[in-house]
Amino acid sequence: MTQTDPSAPAAPPAPWPDALARLAADQARVRAGGGPKAQQRQHDKNRLTARERIARLVDEGTPFDELMTFAGHGMYEDVGGCPSGGTVTGIGTIAGRPWMIVANDATVKAGAFFPITAKKVIRAQTIALENHLPVVYLVDSAGVYLPMQDEIFPDQDDFGRVFYLNARMSARGIPQIAAIMGNCVAGGAYLPVMCDTLIMTEGSGLYLAGPALVKAAIGQVVDSEDLGGASMHASIAGTVDYKEPDDEAALKRIRALADLYAQGEVAPFARRRKATVPAPDRDLTDLVGFDGGKTYDVRDLITALVDGGEFHEFKPDYGETLVCGFARAGGYPVAFVANQRTVIKKKLKSGGEPGLRTRIEVGGVIYGDSADKAARFIMDANQAGVPLVFLSDVTGFMVGRDSEQEGIIRRGAKLVNAVSNSVVPKITIITGGSFGAGNYAMNGKAYAPRFLFAWPSAKYAVMSGNAAAKTLLDIQLAALKRAGHQPDDEELQRLYDEVKAKYDTELDPRYAAARLWVDEIIPPNGTRDRLIRALEACAQNPEQDEFRVGVFQV
Q1: Per residue in 83-131, pLDDT tens?
Q2: Cα distances (angstroms) measured from residue 370 to each of 314, 315, 376, 399, 409
């Protein structure tokens, strides 16, 4: 038996276990909201916290797929932070049907809206609108965080957009139920009142201006109950449809009403759903390296995500740095576009010389032929009405003389056009790098994915860390030299380390998730289940626009 030398240094922790443990710890901290004392204050008012309310609302034994958990992460630190953007959003099953749930977290600054809060609610509403998901709002908010009102109030993607989307969803026949379970003040009062159904608990308050502001504005002295209490709104103003004694009763009422709503048609692709077949059992963290240095065949990743491991690859011997093909996930038909991460020996045209030439193509890079193939495949997926799933681990498009002469810009534009004009549901999963224009080609946030997930290994930026650090350092050095300062080697290293550390922070998926560039960070081995439930959400919208691409570069 081999003896272990106790004096030998311990092996460094494996990157994936360490990363997953950190993700779980960070999620736990964020989900604690304002902390134990704030939670106790909520309980002292005989109210549940946002996540307690959601846990009681969704069907027992079903998951709540939280979205945008890391909204505001690391932001607003000068005012104590805003964990999870001060609101909890996600998709849960109520009465057997997926609903979008938006719940203010009153343990975070009394549920006040920060800039990121408004953007998070708007993103949740947009997901609901695009997928025809009914919405439940659990309202418990003090309104706009006034010290930042100029960043929350006026712009197109600010607070007013919430009510715009309220109205648009109502016009589309998408059910919306609101329950006021605490404060509902100022402009925020419009949100629940613009819903189909309004529930209010005793002890809650609904008013455009609270007692203090009313006194300051018009000199009138009035208590909270007479001004905007549940009894007043239920019996005098007629604003409230159902008055309930407490949170438990309100949640029970929501469940009962949700169970009565008619179920609409499902999407055309969902009408071709078959029984789910289990995927091959594989640990995806063994397949895909954490730091991007490990090569892997993305076909192995795809077959680990799809029913029975069955994958019908499109043009497998052409444009090999992008892998495309059809499969099923959870019984739903799906079309994959995925970055290949192996090193490929590519056969080329002879160029007048006898025989074929070859070159080495680097995995993660999009070459002209792979851009052509993916653009054509995306058109095929739209023609077939099959949702697109992008597995993004992309360095960018190939550069250099040969690539330019082969028309990489023209061919890349063709791919971006196809992605932009695609009308089937699109879901993106970032498993590694998502750099530069490769982010665009692989259906980044700007290209309206229905859902965008990232693994903890995701890196999201205009270029990789080392390249960016060197470029930024060169810019800094040029500025210093123009100012007459010539840094020595020690200062150069310090400058490089500072630039690299800042850029590495911005590469972290939490940085992207904080700003809502991704909808959620998920563990690799949870990808298949999360993908299937995302497809189920997409299946709720039966409408599909006509597919048109406009001017198409050839």
Answers
A1: 999 999 999 999 999 999 999 999 999 999 999 999 999 999 999 999 9
A2: 11, 10, 10, 14, 13
Taking the CA atoms of 253, 258, 260 and 261 in sequence, report the sign of the dihedral they define.
positive
Model pLDDT, residue 476: 76
Distance CA 98, CA 105 (A): 21
Q: What is the pLDDT of residue 14?
A: 66
Inter-CA distances, 499 with 77, 234, 362, 474, 526, Å: 21, 59, 27, 11, 34
Burial class for 55, CB neighbours closer than 10 Å (0-12, 13-18, 19+): middle
The helix (run of H) or strand (run of E) holding residue 366 is: strand 365-366
In whole angstroms, give the CA distance from residue 267 to residue 471: 47
Tell me how far apart the terminal alpha carbons of the chain are, to the nearest angstrom.
Answer: 66
Residue of 367, 349, 366 lying closest to 358 (CA atoms): 349
- Minimal CA–CA distance to 26: which of 69, 68, 62, 89? 69
481 C-beta neighbours (distance < 10 Å), count: 11
Each residue of 303-336: b (16+ CB within 10 Å) or e? bbbbbebebeebbeeebbbbbbbbbbbbbbbbbb
Distance CA 90, CA 535 (A): 15
Nearest of 391, 322, 393 to residue 361 by alpha carbon? 322
Cβ-Cβ contacts under 8 Å for 231 (sequence gap 6 or more): 202, 225, 243
Q: Locate 502 and state its tokens.
A: 């800042």
Q: Which residues pair with 357 in a beta bridge?
A: 348
CA–CA dist 399, 188 (Å, integer): 50
pLDDT of 55 reads 98
- The Cα–Cα gap between 80 and 389 comes to 38
Stated as kind and residue range, the H or E segment containing 338 is strand 332-339
- Residue 436 φ/ψ, nearest 5 degrees: 55, -140
User: Are the C-beta atoms of 319 and 372 separated by less than 8 Å?
Assistant: yes
Note if the pTM is more than 0.70.
yes
Tokens of 124: 């949740």
Residues with pLDDT less than 70, the chain:
1-14, 349-356, 462-469
Q: Are 132 and 171 in contact (CB under 8 A)?
A: no
Q: Are 371 and 317 in contact (CB under 8 A)?
A: no
C-alpha separations of 183 from 59, 111, 149, 473 in Å: 26, 9, 18, 50
H-helix or E-strand containing 102?
Answer: strand 97-104
What is the DSSP track for 46-99? T---HHHHHHHHSPTT--EEEE-TTTTTT--GGGT--GGGGEEEEEEEETTEEE
